[in-house]
């Protein structure tokens, strides 16, 4: 059997400077469609990790907001290391477009009054959700991304 | 703008009986390929949540093992609620095939001597990894899945 390579294990996490948006993979389907994977890194690897309630809150909020900003989203999921999210879309997409969508989505987080689906019917762990935490991380992230990419 | 529906918010989490493998979504690409999403639910929603180090450890272990068992995997990511993982594959796939792949992967977890990529270069939070925790959850899960699906 061919040796299995996990893409995220090939990036040197000591060399990156978070936050950032990085195209980290492209898959070609049998009929020649492209599936693109982006690394949305929110905090610096091995220095910070987003607490579960803030991360889970961001997952609920971004699930809807990102789909309003970007079409053909397959998935947006938190990383097990809690330093960011993976975004998967159908089609090729530029990092700048994903960055814009991320910034717009985070700004919507900042003006959110509640976390959607924060109840035991729609969520698997509804007590572990923090709107406060999600907003504080979003605020920091908007500032840092705008500085880094010279958008302010 | 069209109302955005997040698929996972439409399942009634109070009605399910974990653990289970559930096909939870199919997306058709422009050139008519299918992308299938599976809900691999490890623990009962709103009753248990897998601690971060065990969940993160399972993420590292399953990333490689699942790709040895199943072709055309796009992603396997932990849920923000920490009750399971989402698996995304290119192509149509039956729940039974994913269940078999999951069981084989979990059995490989049980015989693992270390967590792959458990270092600051390859991981974003390498101190938050528990091989012990990953194995204990895997052991319980193998038992419960085999009982539930009459595989023993
Ligand atoms: Zn949730
Ligand atoms: Zn990791």
From TrEMBL, chains A, B:
Metal-binding keyword on record: yes
Q: What class of enzyme is it?
A: lyase
The biological process GO terms on file are: quorum sensing
Matching InterPro entries: LuxS_sf, Metalloenz_LuxS/M16, S-ribosylhomocysteinase
Enzyme Commission no = 4.4.1.21
| Domain of life according to the entry | Bacteria
Cofactor remark: Binds 1 Fe cation per subunit.
Q: Which cofactor does it need?
A: Fe cation
Catalysed reactions listed for this entry: S-(5-deoxy-D-ribos-5-yl)-L-homocysteine = (S)-4,5-dihydroxypentane-2,3-dione + L-homocysteine
Please give the Gene3D superfamilies that the UniProt record associates with this protein.
S-ribosylhomocysteinase (LuxS) (3.30.1360.80)
Molecular function per GO: iron ion binding; S-ribosylhomocysteine lyase activity
Which residues are recorded as binding Fe cation? 56, 60, 123
Keywords for the protein's UniProt record, in alphabetical order: Autoinducer synthesis, Iron, Lyase, Metal-binding, Quorum sensing
Q: Does the keyword ATP-binding apply?
A: no
Question: What is this protein for, i.e. what is its function?
Answer: Involved in the synthesis of autoinducer 2 (AI-2) which is secreted by bacteria and is used to communicate both the cell density and the metabolic potential of the environment. The regulation of gene expression in response to changes in cell density is called quorum sensing. Catalyzes the transformation of S-ribosylhomocysteine (RHC) to homocysteine (HC) and 4,5-dihydroxy-2,3-pentadione (DPD).
Could you tell me which PANTHER family the record lists for this protein?
A: S-RIBOSYLHOMOCYSTEINE LYASE (PTHR35799)
User: Of which family is this protein a member?
Assistant: Belongs to the LuxS family.
Assembly, per entry: Homodimer.
Name under which the protein is recorded = S-ribosylhomocysteine lyase
Species of origin: Proteinivorax hydrogeniformans
């Amino acid at each position: 059997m061919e040796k299995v390579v996990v893409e995220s294990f090939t990036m040197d996490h000591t060399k990156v400077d978070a936050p950032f948006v990085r195209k980290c993979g492209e898959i070609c389907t049998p009929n020649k469609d492209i599936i693109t994977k982006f690394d949305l890194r929110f905090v610096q690897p091995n220095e910070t990790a987003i607490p579960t309630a803030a991360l889970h809150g961001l997952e609920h909020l971004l699930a809807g907001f990102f789909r309003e900003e970007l079409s053909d989203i397959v998935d947006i999921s938190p990383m097990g290391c809690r330093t960011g999210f993976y975004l998967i879309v159908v089609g090729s997409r530029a990092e700048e477009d994903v960055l814009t969508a991320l910034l717009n989505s985070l700004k919507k987080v900042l003006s959110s009054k509640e976390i959607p689906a924060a109840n035991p019917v729609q969520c698997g762990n509804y007590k572990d959700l923090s709107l406060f935490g999600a907003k504080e991380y979003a605020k920091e992230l908007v500032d840092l991304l705008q500085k880094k990419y010279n958008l302010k």
